[in-house]
Design goal:
Strand 5 and strand 6 form a beta hairpin. The mean pLDDT is 94. A four-stranded mixed sheet has the order 4-3-5-6, with helices on both faces. Strands 1-2 form a two-stranded antiparallel ribbon. The chain is globular and about 45 Å long. 33% of the residues lie in helices and 16% in strands. The chain has one domain: Glutaredoxin, CATH 3.40.30. The protein is of the alpha+beta class. One of its GO terms (molecular function) is peroxidase activity.
């Protein structure tokens, strides 16, 4: 299987093949409109604006599995992202990323790269860990997605290159994107 074998649903109900994004570097993210990491919509928009012309895109998938922080449907989520954060990259229909109803794309993504060790150096990291430990301890096991704004970087050939946890540095993410884009330009 490859990432290009998966189908995703747009907010209008239209089914889209991931083949649409062949030859592009992708940052695929599970998002939520009422999360403490919601400010990342703006950061991802900046990356999208900076690198879209070079073959980069962000793909956002709203999810309500973490603290019920995205109760609205995908269409409402997309509208809010555009109005509040100026998002112009694709926002898809709401999905699950863990459990029995895990969307096949996210099941594939999380099994293609190892889950990084959960770092607890900062207060924010400790708070996030404690929240997950208390409310969703199973999400700390295996390759589960632990929280909103987990990001998967996919190269131009459809290979899942890296997983970034919600608190990952956007500088690190941008450097990884630049490396993939430079490799393709050679």
């Amino acid at each position: 299987m490859s990432i290009y074998n998966y189908l995703v649903k747009k907010t209008n109900g239209e089914i889209l093949s991931m083949e649409t994004y062949r030859d592009q570097v992708m940052l695929i993210v599970n998002t939520a409109s009422n999360c403490g990491f919601t400010f990342q919509y703006e950061d991802m928009q900046k990356l999208y604006e900076r690198y879209a012309a070079k073959g980069f895109t962000v793909l956002s998938f709203p999810c309500n599995q973490f603290g019920e922080q995205n109760p609205e449907d995908g269409e409402t989520s997309a509208r809010q992202c555009k109005l509040q954060f100026g998002v112009t990259y694709p926002v898809f229909d709401k999905i699950d990323v863990n459990g029995k109803e895990t969307h096949p794309l996210f099941n594939y993504l999380k099994h293609e790269v190892d889950c990084p060790e959960f770092v607890r150096d900062t207060m924010q990291q400790k708070h996030l860990y404690n929240t997950i430990q208390t409310n969703y301890p199973d999400y700390l096991i295996g390759r589960n997605i632990r929280w909103n704004f987990t990001k998967f970087l996919v190269d131009q050939n459809g290979r899942v290159i890296q997983r970034f946890e919600p608190d990952a540095s956007f500088l690190d993410i941008e450097n990884a994107i630049e490396q993939l884009l430079e490799t393709a330009a050679v």
